[in-house]
Write a structure and sequence with these properties.
two-stranded antiparallel ribbon; single chain
Length: 120
C-alpha cells in the first residue's frame, strides 16, 4: 500500500502522493541507509547522544511522547518528519512485522534521504 486513496474533485478515486514520499523514505531507510534505530527508547538514546540525523514519527504516537521527541530533536538540531500512517504502516514500510512508533536515522550511508528533505 503506497498511498491512501482519496476522492478527487471530480469524484474519482486517485492515489495521493505522500509528503516527501514518506513510505518510500521509510522503506529506503531500512534498505540503503547505513544505521537506523527503531522504536521510542532507542530513538531517545540517539537523540540525547546527538547521533540522529532524521526522525520519523507515526501519526498515532501519543501526543506527550511526540512532543518529548520533538523537544529532544530541537535540542540536537535534528529534523522531524510526521509520518502520515500509523505505527503498523510504518513497521510494514520498514519491512518488519511489528509496530514501529518512530524511526531514527543515525547514519545516512549510501542514501541521500537526509539531503532530500526540506529544512524545517
Amino acid at each position: 500500500r503506497l498511498a491512501k486513496p482519496t476522492r478527487g474533485d471530480d469524484g474519482t478515486r486517485e492515489e495521493v502522493e505522500k509528503v516527501g514520499g514518506e513510505l518510500e523514505l521509510a522503506a529506503a531507510a531500512r534498505d540503503e541507509v547505513g544505521k537506523v534505530a527503531l522504536g521510542y527508547k532507542t530513538s531517545l538514546k540517539t537523540l540525547r547522544s546527538n547521533k540522529s540525523k532524521l526522525v520519523l514519527i507515526a501519526n498515532n504516537t501519543p501526543p506527550l511522547r511526540k512532543s518529548e521527541v520533538e523537544y529532544y530533536a530541537m535540542l540536537s538540531k535534528c529534523q522531524v518528519i510526521h509520518y502520515s500512517g500509523s505505527n503498523v504502516d510504518l513497521g510494514l514500510a520498514c519491512g518488519k512485522y511489528f509496530r514501529v512508533s518512530m524511526l531514527t536515522i543515525i547514519d545516512a550511508g549510501d542514501s541521500d534521504i537526509v539531503r532530500n528533505q526540506p529544512e524545517a
